[in-house]
């Protein structure tokens, strides 16, 4: 089904954005193509169970949410090492125009769906990260604040052969005085070359009037590794998709996810991996907690292609409910077209274990503290997968804040 | 000198038409004494242990569980102690309050808790016990005043360990812990592992005794602490239980099926439970007789008497 046209959107709008940013002609073309794709593009698929469509993206009122010409953000980019390029696109075109043109949209098709097309047509912020061959950098951080009604962000990471990089991005509300609902869109694409290694951590903690759409996708080359950490704490509604295409022999990807919903927050969390070559490995681990009347829906897909000989693929998802009124649905999917595969997938939705709680209480610990210890303990297995101390600390702190 | 006094205790499974399990238990355990509680499966021994500790799966339908304390037991309390502070009806208290007053339950099947390290758990427990004791013994007006300006109480992450050192400093904690672990012949590597997660049956039981040693209870109820232990571990655990009594003056109520542990932990008193009641009590010789003759004769005696 098609989505409503947004009246404030026109070619002029897109041209103005491109002009103000002094963008090359090819990017303007890409934006205009995305804009015209809106006419036919569909919203992303959402999980449906009998009688219920879990995430109602159609209900989003884009007409009032999208304010393309007043986008504003405050973004700090810091680089551990000057061998790596970490720049807003506008500052990168002169020197790295060719690299950007060759890779932009190559991993994540701008016209993938309605929301990606909208995002590519209108983005005004984001980051280009370029890690040349053999360069090894650990502390790239991109900390962004959203100041406007809507914000569209686009990130491209190009990691050349045998390079290695760790990137942490975060998005939080800024000082911008905007009343009412807001919309944040975040597209990230990673092109990881042969034997390249990328760890990309993302922390979303926007306020409870914001609707967030995020799609992150990696193309992982021969012996390449892309590890994602996707942490969602904020927003009224979050739709998050993290995807890895294992296109080179020996490619690996881990997708670690955490979320913690309170009040009436809604999380639609998706992790997907496509095994397209031989000897590839994937590990999908997501843990989330829901309190009050928060809801979550999870979909995990491990797709093993015809040529994916000797595949290893694992998926686990656990949701812990702290309230009887919270709701969760989880659907782990395993599609195997090559039977030379070792795979597992599981998902659980459960409550705090009464025996565990009593055990702690019988050692003098009051029930509230005991419950909080169990919740923090529940997150530990995913926190342990986070190799970057700074990021793990941030996530722990956010878990801790919500447990007060 | 503390006394746990159980009078005519009745309890059932806390659900509609829940089974009646305890049918009038009378039992008194004084600190410094070791009691063995024996009886066939289904006689209500484990239920008694859980009801004393306040397990929510059981509903008490009658009787009382009293804890009497004396000056020695409240020597750590700064607040003024009234007469009523020496006598507690445990059934009116939350499980953690009972624990803070000095009741310890050693579980037959200890919970495995992922993500919470032994070190953090033990420090959290020790600090919680000290805090809870302050609250239990302070006057009501003080409690209200405290509640007003109290933070949420949980201001440190158990993953990181308390940021403020609370009542027990790191160095002191480590020292006590090392000593107790040595006594129980436990490896210090235990402390970085998650609470009981992946522990063998024997390691879990050692860990229960270690926790009792750290928390220094007035009365420890140990539910089948000897089941599933090999002889070496049985000896370690026994050494730990004897030390609870000898060094801390803990009263021990030891629930067991087997005479075996009683060779290492000699009981001052032995009780037999049948059909939810304590039907016979005696000295150490009673356990030996049970080992030889089983429970039938006890049942006959009890039946005749009734």
Description of the structure:
- The complex is a heterodimer of chains A (404) and B (306).
- By secondary structure, chain A is of the alpha/beta class.
- Chain A has one domain.
- Chain A is built from 8 helices and 20 strands.
- In chain A, a hairpin with a 2-residue loop joins strand 1 and strand 2 (52-53).
- Chain A is globular.
- The model of chain A has no long low-confidence stretch (mean pLDDT 94).
- Chain B is of the alpha/beta class and 306 residues long.
- Chain B has a single domain (3-305), classed as Rossmann fold, CATH 3.40.50.
- Chain B is 37% helix and 22% strand.
- Chain B has helices at 45-53, 95-101, 118-137, 140-149, 170-183, 201-215, 231-248, 284-293, 296-305, and strands at 3-13, 20-30, 34-38, 58-68, 87-89, 103-106, 219-223, 251-255, 269-274, 277-282.
- In chain B, the strands form 2 sheets. In chain B, strands 6-7-8-3-9-10 form a 6-stranded mixed beta sheet, with helices on both faces.
- In chain B, helix 7 (231-248) links the parallel strand 7 and strand 8 (251-255).
- Mean pLDDT of chain B is 88; it is low at 150-158 and 160-165.
- Chain A: Residues 80-139 form the SUF system FeS cluster assembly SufBD N-terminal domain.
- Chain A: Residues 147-378 form the SUF system FeS cluster assembly SufBD core domain.
- Chain A: This is Fe-S cluster assembly protein SufD.
């Amino acid at each position: 089904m098609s989505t409503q046209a947004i009246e404030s959107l026109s070619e002029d709008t897109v041209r103005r954005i491109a002009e103000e940013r002094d963008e090359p002609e090819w990017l303007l073309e890409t934006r205009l193509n995305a804009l015209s794709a809106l006419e036919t593009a569909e919203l992303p698929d959402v999980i449906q169970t009998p009688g219920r469509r879990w995430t109602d993206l159609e209900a989003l009122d884009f007409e009032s949410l999208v304010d393309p010409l007043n986008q504003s953000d405050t973004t700090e980019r810091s680089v551990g090492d000057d061998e790596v390029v970490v720049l807003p696109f506008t500052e990168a075109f002169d020197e790295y125009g060719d690299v950007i043109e060759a890779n932009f949209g190559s991993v994540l098709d701008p016209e993938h769906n309605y929301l990606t097309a909208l995002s590519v047509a209108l983005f005004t912020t984001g980051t280009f990260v370029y890690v040349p061959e053999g360069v090894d950098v650990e502390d790239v951080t991109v900390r962004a604040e959203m100041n406007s009604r809507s914000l569209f962000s686009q990130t491209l990471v190009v990691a050349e052969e045998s390079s290695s990089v760790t990137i942490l991005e975060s998005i939080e509300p800024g000082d911008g005085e905007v009343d009412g609902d807001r919309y944040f869109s975040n597209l990230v694409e990673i092109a990881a070359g042969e034997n390249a290694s990328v760890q990309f951590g993302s922390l979303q903690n926007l306020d409870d009037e914001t609707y967030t759409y995020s799609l992150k996708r990696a193309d992982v080359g021969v012996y390449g590794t892309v590890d994602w950490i996707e942490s969602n704490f904020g927003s009224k509604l979050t739709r998050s998709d993290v995807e890895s295409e294992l296109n080179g022999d020996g490619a690996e990807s881990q997708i670690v996810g955490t979320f913690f919903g309170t009040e009436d927050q809604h999380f639609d969390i998706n992790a997907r991996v496509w095994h397209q070559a031989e000897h590839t490995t994937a590990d999908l681990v997501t843990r989330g907690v829901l309190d009050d009347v928060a809801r979550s829906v999870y979909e995990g897909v491990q797709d093993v292609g015809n040529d994916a000989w000797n595949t290893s693929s694992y998926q686990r998802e656990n949701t812990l409910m702290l309230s009887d009124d919270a709701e969760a649905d989880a659907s782990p999917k395993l599609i195997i077209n090559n039977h030379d595969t070792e795979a597992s997938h599981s998902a659980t939705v459960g409550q705090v274990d009464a025996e565990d709680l009593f055990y702690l209480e019988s050692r003098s610990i009051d029930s509230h503290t005991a419950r909080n210890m169990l919740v923090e303990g529940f997150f530990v297995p995913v926190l342990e997968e986070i190799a970057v101390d700074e990021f793990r600390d941030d996530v722990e702190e956010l878990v801790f804040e919500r447990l007060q | 000198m503390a006394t746990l006094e159980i009078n005519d205790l009745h309890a059932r499974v806390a659900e509609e038409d829940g089974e009646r399990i305890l049918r009038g238990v009378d039992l008194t355990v004084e600190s410094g004494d070791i009691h063995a509680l024996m009886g066939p499966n289904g006689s209500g021994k484990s239920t008694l242990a859980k009801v004393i500790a306040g397990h929510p799966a059981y509903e008490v339908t009658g009787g009382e569980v009293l804890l009497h304390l004396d000056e020695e037991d409240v020597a750590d309390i700064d607040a003024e102690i009234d007469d009523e502070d020496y006598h507690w009806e445990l059934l009116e208290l939350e499980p953690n309050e009972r624990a803070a007053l000095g009741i310890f339950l050693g579980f037959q099947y200890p919970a495995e808790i992922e993500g919470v390290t032994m070190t953090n758990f033990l420090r959290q427990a020790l600090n919680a016990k000290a805090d809870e004791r302050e609250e239990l013994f302070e006057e009501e007006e003080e409690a209200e005043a405290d509640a007003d300006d109290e933070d949420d109480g949980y201001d440190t992450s158990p993953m990181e360990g308390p940021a403020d050192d609370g009542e027990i400093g790191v160095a002191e904690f480590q020292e006590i812990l090392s000593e107790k672990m040595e006594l129980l012949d436990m490896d210090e590597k235990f402390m970085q592992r998650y609470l009981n997660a992946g522990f063998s049956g024997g390691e879990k039981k050692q860990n229960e005794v270690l926790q009792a040693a750290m928390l220094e209870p007035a009365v420890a109820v140990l539910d089948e602490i000897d089941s599933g232990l090999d002889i070496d571990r049985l000896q370690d655990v026994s050494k730990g239980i004897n030390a609870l009594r000898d060094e801390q003056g803990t009263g021990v109520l030891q629930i067991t099926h087997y005479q075996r542990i009683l060779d290492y932990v000699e009981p001052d008193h032995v009780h037999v439970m049948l059909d939810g009641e304590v039907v016979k009590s005696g000295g150490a010789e009673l356990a030996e007789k049970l080992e030889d003759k089983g429970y039938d004769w006890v049942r006959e005696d009890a039946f005749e008497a009734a």
